[in-house]
Write a structure and sequence with these properties.
Helix content: 25-40%
CATH architecture of the largest domain: 3-Layer(bba) Sandwich
Structural class: alpha/beta
Distance between the termini: 58 Å
Number of domains: 3
Largest sheet: 8 strands, mixed
Radius of gyration: 21 Å
Strand content: 25-35%
CATH superfamily of the largest domain: FAD/NAD(P)-binding domain
Shape: globular
CATH topology of the largest domain: FAD/NAD(P)-binding domain
Oligomer: single chain
Order of helices and strands: EHEEHEEEEHEEEEHEEEEHEEEHHHHHH
Bound molecules: flavin-adenine dinucleotide
């Protein structure tokens, strides 16, 4: 008789690796598959992550930490700068990672916890019986075969197909997606202690431009613009202009293209025998596009719910719905909150952004909570405060 795994995880990014590791630690028989031949490569990320949230999942290791930051600086279109402590700066500021090494370290953890890992193995479809997911079709070195399991976790990232195969609507409209392009730039003079964010409709319409240091004289410099705003100018046009104006001597040694979901929570992330995690479940932050921490948090919750379902021998939507409840009441709350702020932010003119930045120039961001910060931010503009009243 063919083997039936307890759990198959599709995708070896942060969401999939943490799901597989936790499930293996809880005693499940786990298979993780990754379509690429190398975990974590090519990188499609600015590699910024909050230190506190990360330490819940993996011990910090200098092999994958490129920069240890003290804070971030936000520049409005007229150049007014607002500086914030690392703790105040959200889920993307803390360390700048070397994700090729970091992602591999996460998968190494899950392999050591007992999960089986197969690289260069692509999921090509779901095995469905009476509407229930019972495993996957996989392709390895040109050969297609079936792998059966009690539960499948789809952690297959932004371009996820797993959810769609099970009939879950994960489609994104242009307004639900940031189009990003990033250079790894060397030979530049930067402050290795700070992440810089540049705002403005001439810089990054309905998005932002970032400079994330990767050590001395090197940084990830990228731009994300809302899909619906990429009309006459592409994201790369904005990035090239910034490079010419600010870092004319910079030398580009790597280039990354990618999309980031900023839709906020989708309606459904489970079905019979299936759980979606991370970018596949559209769990990235709608303001920043950051998704590493949320993918890891969701992966951990998914593993715990899967382990409980296996123990009960019940993999139906009713049982797996516990995952919906848990992620929506934790990271989901933050995502909802960010969505409200994003929907207001995308309507800002450059004048609004300058006005807000100027009104904040005397605020001490090293001692405020996030809610205090937002309050201070919008106090200067009563209309914005009214739009965001639900947050306070
Ligand atoms: P992924 O990391 O995308 O992993 C999915 C994995 O699934 C991939 O390895 C893929 O190869 C594999 N896969 C896909 N399909 C299949 C298949 N059919 N079979 C097998 N394997 C499959 N987030 C931050 O927190 N901080 C940042 O600074 C940041 N910067 C970003 C900059 C850019 C330009 C972009 C595009 C994104 C950025 N993000 C950032 C977002 C972040 O990269 C993602 O949110 C995060 O990687 C999501 O993790 P995940 O595990 O859900 O998906």
């Amino acid at each position: 008789m063919k083997k039936i795994y307890d759990l198959i995880v599709v995708g070896g990014g942060p969401g999939g690796a943490i799901a597989a590791k936790n499930a293996a630690e809880l005693g499940l028989d786990v298979l993780l598959i990754e379509k690429r031949q190398e975990i974590g490569d090519p990188v499609r990320c600015a590699e910024g992550v909050s230190k506190i949230c990360l330490s819940d999942h993996i011990e910090p290791d200098p092999r994958w930490i490129c920069a240890d930051l003290t804070g971030s600086r936000i520049y409005s279109p007229d150049g007014t700068m607002v500086e914030m402590s690392e703790e105040m700066s959200g889920g993307e500021v803390g360390y700048v990672l070397e994700r090729k090494v970091f992602d591999r370290a996460l998968v190494d953890q899950c392999a050591r916890a007992g999960a089986e890992v197969r690289v260069k193995t692509r999921a090509t479809g779901l095995i469905m019986e009476n509407g229930v997911v019972c495993g996957i079709y996989a392709m390895h070195l040109g050969e297609e075969y079936e792998i059966r399991s009690k539960i499948v976790i789809g952690a297959d990232g932004m371009e996820s197909k797993v959810g769609r195969w099970a009939g879950i609507d994960t489609s994104l409209k242009p307004t639900d997606m940031e189009t990003c392009v990033q250079y790894l730039v060397t030979n530049i003079d930067i402050d290795p202690q700070f992440c810089d964010f540049y705002l403005g409709n001439e810089i990054a319409p309905a998005g932002y431009l970032w400079v994330f240091p990767k050590g001395e004289n090197m940084a990830n410099i990228g731009v994300g613009i809302l899909g619906s705003k990429s009309g006459d100018h592409r994201a790369i046009d904005y990035l090239n202009k910034f490079m010419k104006d600010i870092y004319p001597d910079g030398r580009v040694i790597e280039m990354v293209y990618g999309g980031v979901p900023v839709s906020g929570p989708i309606e459904k992330t489970v079905s019979d025998g299936l759980i979606l995690v991370g970018d596949a479940a559209r769990q990235s932050d709608p303001i920043t596009g950051g998704g590493i921490i949320n993918a890891m948090e969701a992966g951990k919750i998914a593993a715990e719910v899967a382990a409980d379902a296996i123990k009960r021998g019940d993999y139906t939507t009713d049982t797996l719905n516990e995952y919906e409840t848990l992620w929506r009441s934790t990271i989901g709350k933050e995502i909802e909150y960010s969505l409200v702020v994003k929907e207001t932010f995308v309507k800002f003119t450059d004048k609004d952004l300058n006005h807000l930045a100027q009104s904040l120039s005397n605020v001490n961001f090293y001692s405020l909570s996030l809610r205090d910060l937002l309050y201070a931010l919008f106090k200067a503009n009563k209309k914005l405060l009214w739009d965001l009243r639900g947050l306070f």
